[in-house]
Amino acid sequence: MWDQRYSTPEYAYGTKANDFLIENVTTIPKGKVLSLAEGEGRNAVFLAQQGYTVTAVDGSWAGIEKAKNLAKINQVDIEFIHADLNDYELGENKWDAIISIFFPLASAQRSKLYQKVSRGLKTNGVFLLEAYTPKQVSLGTGGGSSVAVMQSKQSLTNELKGLDFIHLAEIERNVVEGIYHTGVGAVIQAIAQKNDS
Asked: Which of 20, 53, 120, 137 has its CA 20 to 30 A from that of 91?
């Protein structure tokens, strides 16, 4: 599905970074940032432009090729990795920050990934996420029709262990990100930090 979506000349979700990421970039410690399911590169390019050392992982070759092109246009260096995030190892105490922007994933897979996120972050490292909530299905402005891959305060609190939430909110906001995310969206926004246990 994703290779097909990303195989068009235009950028499916645009080339501008996610608004929540832009607004909260100062909460991300300077250093090494991992972007999960980066897609066509917009968020990774933005972070690289802010001086971060960015690694971007995605399961779509077509997405990675477009992301590489976007990085070249913007004259930034990013490490791109083609991998299935169900299998990809994030390492331990490796990342100053990890971001997840509109990454649809079922609960069982999320729980396993979030365990890797918690292990992968350094002490004081930050996890920043924006995702659609189940309410999004009735709005129909992006994110598909499967409630199973959407998240809520409750699901995130249950699944993301070992981190302390600095910010956790379910809101409705105008999401304009390419042709697939356009209109009022029901989202969850989270910033969590790994502290000494």
From this structure: 20
Beta strands in the chain (DSSP E): 32-36, 53-58, 79-82, 95-101, 121-132, 164-177, 181-193
CB 149 within 8 A of CB 197: no
Domains: count for the chain: 1
Phi/psi zone of residue 151: left (φ > 0), alpha (ψ -120 to 50 degrees), beta?
Answer: beta
CATH classification at residue 10: 3.40.50.150
Distance CA 152, CA 150 (A): 7
Question: What span, in angstroms and rounded, lies between the C-alpha atoms of 50 and 52?
Answer: 6
CA atoms within 13 A on the CB side of 71: 24
**Could you read off the pLDDT of 76-87 as tens digits, one per residue?**
999 999 999 999
CB of 119 closer than 8 Å to CB of 112: no
Q: Which has more confidence, 2 or 70?
A: 70
The whole domain housing 85 covers: 2-193
Report the half-sphere exposure of 37 (CA within 13 A, side-chain side). Answer: 16
- Please report how many Cα atoms fall inside a 13 Å half-sphere around the Cα of residue 31, on the Cβ side: 15
pLDDT digits (tens, 9 = 90+) for 175-194: 989 888 889 999 999 999 99
